[in-house]
Amino acid sequence: MEVTGVYLVALMLFAAVSSTVVNACPPSDRKALLAFKSALTEPYLGIFDTWTGTDCCTNWYGVSCDPTDSRVNDIILRGESEDKIFERTGRSGYMTGWLSPSLCSLDRLTTLVVADWKGISGEIPACITSLPHLRILDLIGNQITGKIPADIGKLEKLTVLNVADNKITGEISPSIVNLRSLMHLDLSNNQITGVLPADLGKLSMMSRALLNRNRITGTIPSSISGIYRLADLDLSMNMISGTIPAQIGSMPVLSTLNLDSNRITGEIPASLLSNSGLNIVNLSRNSLDGHLPDVFTPRTYFSVLDLSFNKLKGAIPKSLSAARYIGHLDLSNNHLCGSIPVGFPFDHLEASSFSNNDCLCGSPLMRVC
């Protein structure tokens, strides 16, 4: 019996030790995380104070691991959060430093979020494209410079690419169209130049494409119309020229289209204003000309329709009165003429919606027809 008892005790001790070994993250992952930490300085919240001990899977702020093998899966560090650590200090996060290439040693990483820290600079490590399981890359709200890695298209499982509100330069890599799983693309508010890839339409899973506030030139690729799931397209505040592809008006899910503050010319496609699914359309501050398409119906529903600061001419279509709803309508600063139709939606609009045209008259303008 004594032998059996000793054997059982030894077996329990072995199991406990084995469990500890299995549950602890591998030394290589811990080393990579500590190298990542050493490149950053976070002086106010103390989030890296929790990164101590041998097991980076337990109580390391923002780090989570695969429960089956204790490999690091996720790094989620947000400088804007409702987490208690922010509530205690009563401030948002601030962090300086750069993103260490040591991250690329975490070859089981699926999520990398280092967002809204305001002071992180340097470039995106080129080796980040070697992470075969990466699904989310979110670096919004920092001071990151340099280009998006040229072979970004190697991240075949990537569903979210968000590098908005940084100082990224250079052109959009043609390889980006190989991200066939991509659903959310946000490159807004950077210094990106060059043209949009002609075959951007290959990103067939994408539901949001936000590329506003950059220095993008060239034309809008007609292939975009092939992105069946695209609901939100924002190309505003760039230097895009050419015409609006008529095919965009036939996109079945598109609800928000912002093309304002570019150099777009030509006429407004009739299909764009007759698409009953479109809810927000802003084409202001371009060089669009021609007449407003007379295509409005009882299915027309616009929360926002802004066509101001263009070169539109002719009369306001009377069919606009048939629209089911138009919340904000701005036709100011064009070359429109004739009487403003009466009734809805014109009866709730202010004069500023029609100001600075050639010869519009009627309410709410003071000019009598």
TrEMBL record:
Gene Ontology process terms (BP): defense response; response to other organism
Annotated source species: Mikania micrantha
Domain Leucine-rich repeat-containing N-terminal plant-type: 27-66
Protein name stated in the entry: Uncharacterized protein
Cellular component terms per the entry's GO annotation: membrane
Signal peptide: 1-24
Annotated Disease resistance R13L4/SHOC-2-like LRR domain residues: 103-207
PANTHER family assigned: DNA DAMAGE-REPAIR/TOLERATION PROTEIN DRT100, DNA-DAMAGE-REPAIR_TOLERATION PROTEIN DRT100-LIKE
Pfam short name (any one): LRR_1
Compartments where located: Membrane
Keywords of this entry: Glycoprotein, Leucine-rich repeat, Membrane, Repeat, Signal, Transmembrane, Transmembrane helix
